[in-house]
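This part of the workshop introduces the protein records we will be handling. A record pairs a protein's sequence with a compact description of its fold. Comparing a sequence with its tokens is the quickest way to learn the format. To make this concrete, we reproduce a full record directly below:
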Amino acid sequence: MSEQPHHNITVEVETNYIEGQSEPDNERYVFSYTITIRNEGEVPAQLLARHWIITDANGNTQEVKGEGVVGEQPHLKPGEGFQYTSGTMIATPVGSMRGSYQMVAENGDEFDADIPSFTLAIPRTLH
């Protein structure tokens, strides 16, 4: 019996508040997020789809599912990374996002790469 190949996709996130597109008076807070996905595993894998759960401070949840990321389905060899920037809008100054990427390894194994929860928050302003 052969040993399962080791899948290890790491996800790093940086977020930014987009003041120019936000309208706090209309409960519209726009954030960008830059994601770096790295294949730290032993087999090449391709990102097929994404699943996001976006929650605002009022507990309202949006679910987003779709193929690929920014129109691409990156194929990552071991040690390779892929970075992209996307955005979201929530109704409160603070919220969170989490989710997963649906991946397929070169050998046909399908697996999910977890995206740990991260915070969306406008920078604290000093008066």
